[in-house]
Amino acid sequence: QWNKESDAWHEYARAEHSKEEERLKNIPDKYRIYNKLFKETLETGLPEYNQWDHEISIIKGGEPAFYKLYNLTEPQLQTRREYIDDILAKGYIRLSTSSAGYPVMFILKKNRKLRLVVDYQQLNKITRKDRTPLPLITELRDRLWGKRWFTALDLKGAYNLIRIKEGDE
């Protein structure tokens, strides 16, 4: 029986408390109040559909098409298969019935690993452009001048967590 009076429950609670204490050891005291902001496990799957989902607006007369695949080496084919299997299992993508398709290639990263890149150049040609300007680098540099603290985020999989508007997938 799993209740607060059982030995099993107390054993589980002690183990969870020990895990939490071990995790907190690595966080400076003054930042521990923010502990709940950080998850121990990564999100899997996509968020529910919402009004702010990313919309892909195709210009009038434009039609997404299927483009020839690029030749890949055996290690690239293996990396592609592992990548697709991984993000399929996580729920970031699903099997497609679309007649459109875009080729993939690989970029060699500094750590000598391969990064998969989808070549969306042809899709970009028929997509209505978002003319919201990005901040100028010089302006950002001026705003950061003299600052002491900076944050680096590893957004490796963040692209796959953006929900595309239903019907635009």
UniProtKB/TrEMBL annotation:
Keyword Mitochondrion: yes
GO annotations of cellular component type: mitochondrion
Subcellular location: Mitochondrion
Assigned keywords, A-Z: Mitochondrion
Residue ranges of every copy of the Reverse transcriptase domain listed in the record: 107-168
Stored Pfam families: RVT_1
The keyword Glycoprotein is annotated on this UniProt entry: no
Name of the molecule in the record: Reverse transcriptase domain-containing protein
Origin organism lineage: Eukaryota, Fungi, Dikarya, Ascomycota, Pezizomycotina
